[in-house]
Structures are given as C-alpha cells and as structure tokens.
Amino acid sequence: MGLAARAAVSKVDQRFRQCHRLRSRAEFDRVRHEGQTYRSRLFSVIIRFDPSLPAARLGIIAGRRFGGAVSRSRVRRHVREAFRLRRAAFLGRADLVVIPRAEAAAVAGGAMGRELERLWRKARLLPPADAAQSTE
Predict the structure, then answer these.
(1) Three-state SS string across 32-51, please?
(2) Is the dihedral of CA 30, 77, 52, 117 positive or negative?
(3) Within the chain, where are the H helices?
(4) Domain assignment of residue 86, given as a range
(5) Mind listing the pLDDT tens digit for each residue in 23-56?
(6) Would you say the pTM of this structure is higher than 0.85?
(7) What total of structural domains would you count in the chain?
(8) CATH of the domain at 27
(9) How far is the C-alpha of 22 from the C-alpha of 115, rounded, in Å?
(10) Which residues are paired to 45 by β-bridges?
C-alpha cells in the first residue's frame, strides 16, 4: 500500500462498531437465503447486496465443528480485522456472512486476509486488483 493510500485509510473511521455487525438470526437467515455464495479453500462467503443499508455488515459462523474455542476465536478475530481494514474500499453496501473451513485454523492471519480479499474481489465488492494497485 502506497503512502497516499495509507493516509486515506488512516483518516477513515476503522472501528468495528455494532452497526457493522449482523446480530440477529433473522439477518443471518436473510443473507443465507437471498445472498450469493463464493467459496475457496479456506472460506465460504455469502454476500447479499442491499443499497438501503447504512454500511456493510459482517457476520461470522464458526461452530463447534470448526474446532476448539481458541482456534474459532483466532479465526473470527482475523476475519473481523480483514473486514475492518478493507471496509472503506467496498464498492457497495452489503451483508456478508463468512463461514471458515477447517483448513483456516492452520493458516496465518495475513493469508486469511488475502483469501477473503480475493473472494470479495470475485464478488465485485472490492475493485479489481489491477485498479487497486494503480491507485497506490
């Protein structure tokens, strides 16, 4: 990331507030039934675009089948961080549900962020990689 891009990102509120979270079962169900699914080796991401939303919102589903509490918490933390850092660059407002796969528990945090970014670009939630590099 170039200096200009870092300066622009640092001016944006990067906190992960309640308005950026999916909180009720009904919200999760709506995304799961109406959204588009994108899969990779580490994650399944379901995205439901909704221009009436005030901001992009994130929900994470990591149940006990995924692993122990420590690994679930670690993956959730890295997913939230990836979302928080890239949220300002999203092209639209959408609800996202991220479902980590068992392989994600063994991967470093940076690799998780890159994989999520790749899925978000595939879903056209982020600008194409070549456009993002040209602005740096």
Answers:
(1) HHHCEEEECCCEEEEEEECC
(2) negative
(3) 3-11, 25-34, 69-86, 109-122, 129-134
(4) 3-134
(5) 999 999 999 999 999 999 999 999 999 999 888 9
(6) no
(7) 1
(8) 3.30.230.10
(9) 21
(10) 38, 98
